[in-house]
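Dock phenylalanine; give full complex structure.
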Amino acid sequence: MNEKIKEIQAEIEAFKISSQENLEQFRIKFLGSKGIVKGLFGELKTVANEQKREMGQLLNALRKTAQDHFDNAKESMESQVDEDSKVDVSRPGDQIAVGARHPLSIVRSEIIEIFSRIGFMVSEGPEIEDDWHNFSALNFPPEHPARDMQDTFFIEKGEEEIALRTHTSSVQVRVMENEKPPIRTISPGRVYRNEAISARAHCFFHQVEGLYIDKDVSFADLKQTLMYFAKEMFGEKAQIRLRPSYFPFTEPSAEVDVSCTICNGKGCNVCKYTGWLEILGCGMVDPNVLDSSKIDSKTYSGFAFGMGVERIAQLKYRVNDLRLYSENDVRFLKQFTPEM
Ligand code: PHE
């Protein structure tokens, strides 16, 4: 019997358990109610009395070996399953591709934000406009060259001319017609001009125009407002200068330059060694424009300004080709993140 126990001991140790099936086979063979170990215990009664104690101990040890072998195999199999299904919380997460905001949206939002801090509302209007809102109400003389086919995309010509708006001043006309002063509004939006597409010009672009009408609004208010904008947009060091200009709807009119953001006014190829970059047009609203929209020009005065979003974005991000904004190349688009 002693021999037999040793043999079985060796057999148990050599039994490789690699699957649930194996495990069950092992259990039945060695530990089951009709298994080998149980059988040996049954044989104990045939052993001579003086050997019973020793044999009993050997059998108990054998049963323990079988039980341990079984338990270990079972445990390692379970932990294997666990390993596979366990989530490793320390692993870096999968990258989720989120889109980036378009540079023009970022800059437009920033412009809106800057003006909203000093009380400007946002107003919007249609991109398809009639002659009145785009031109006539803005004091464009009938034969003014800006109405020429060169600049304007006409949709319907004739008595009632319909065109794609060439500026968002048209929205300001709508605001003046519908609201009473004080008016403080900016109108962001897309505008269209019939230009050959190149690095410096496109047939559509985006503007933000501003309008402020109240009693006693002066040119000093305009200048201070633009100064505030330039510093918020381009930094504390930014300076502005105004050059006399002409727009049919403002008098006097000016074009505004900001000190070159790249060389800080020292002169570089971006500012063409002048130290200045043109950013917008502005002026005091022409009394004719106020009267056209039924705002009494004897009581009220106002200023207006208009800027191109592409231009501001170009200065901010040094984009040197306008076409990049509308080509949807992800290599370009993914480079812009808004300032937090
Ligand atoms: N509407 C002008 C343009 O499109 C800009 C402008 C707005 C100029 C308001 C003066 C005052 O260029």
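Observed: The chain has a mean pLDDT of 90.
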